[in-house]
Automatic annotation (TrEMBL):
Keyword check for Signal: yes
Residues annotated as signal peptide: 1-19
Alphabetical keyword list: Signal
Domain of life: Eukaryota
Keyword Signal belongs to the record: yes
Protein name as it appears in the record: CSON008553 protein
Length: 64
């Protein structure tokens, strides 16, 4: 029982890290801190994403 508080602290840190991990929905791929995908030649970016000229890719818009 003496180490129960250590277990609680370590467990809460693991939950905090895993809860903050963000995955990208298809067809997006993780690139650093962003989810990006290529833009179709004759088309628009997928829903909830915007085209950025600097990268020539569609970037997913996260609603925080």
């Amino acid at each position: 029982m003496k180490f129960l508080w250590i277990f609680t602290v370590i467990f809460s840190m693991v939950v905090l890290v895993l809860g903050h991990h963000q995955t990208c929905p298809l067809p997006f791929a993780k690139d650093g801190n962003e989810c990006i995908t290529g833009r179709p030649v004759k088309g628009e970016c997928p829903p909830n994403s915007t085209y950025k000229v600097a990268t020539n890719k569609c970037h997913l818009n996260f609603n925080h």
